[in-house]
What does this fold into?
Amino acid sequence: MKECFECPEDQYPSKSKNKCVPKDISFLSYDDPLGISAASVAFSFFVITALVQVIFIKHQDTPIVKANNRDLSYILLVSLLLCFLSSFLFLGRPGKVSCFLRQAAFGIIFSVAVSCILAKTITVVVAFMATKPGSNMRKWVGKRLANSIVFFGTSIQVVICTVWLGISPPFPDLDMHSLTGLIVVECNEGSFIMFYLVLGYMGLLSVISFTVAFLARKLPDSFNEAKFITFSMVIFCSVWLSFVPTYLSTKGKYIVAVEIFSILASSAGLLACIFFPKCYVILLRPELNIKDNLIKRKN
It folds into this structure.
């Protein structure tokens, strides 16, 4: 009777159990149907976002673009462009640079986007409160408050990511045990505590933005974006709440696919809910994009 022996880590037993077979290398590549789909969707939304940016720049002096801080809209659009581009860091064979950058870039870019949304919502609330007689809120009306919110909201995430990359940065790794017959090339997050801290902070910003937008959704303002922001935050929070259990229960290259899907779905939700209604008015209902008409509708 022949003696049994254990196969090396990079091999697995054949069906007949009489020899060791080399394991295949697995990662989400651009040649994979799932990778092609993700790349196509990301590029499509990148182009759509760029077109929205062009529309806003072309109509930058119209009331609907100037309302609720035009500069914040530009920053939010740029951050959404980078959100869609960041998904490409998750495609292809993981390397030192892509592993080092992708989670930090994702966390910081999304924090900029959500901080812009929070700043937009608070701007609406402060502007409404400043209209009351004898209000002390008038000194807060303007770009300074909005810029401070974006800067402060983003800075905290930058600090978290800097600490993460400084003490335990992500690195390329080989998972030889999760899937039979496959060696999964993946990014080891280095510190899962820091990874979930990044997600947790992003979730905190999202919940605060949703809460403020929900409370401000009925304020009497023709330019009030709070309703659209509320819808966008519902989509955003739903996507990332479902991401955590799905991420923990998925193995192999599908873990990367889940994160890419979450990035694309949440970014697309922000783009559609906040900017598509404005583009509809700008392109298809230009008669509504006049200050006098908007004031009449308000009254």
About this structure: The radius of gyration is 24 Å. The longest helix spans residues 96-130. The chain has nine helices and five strands. The mean pLDDT is 87.
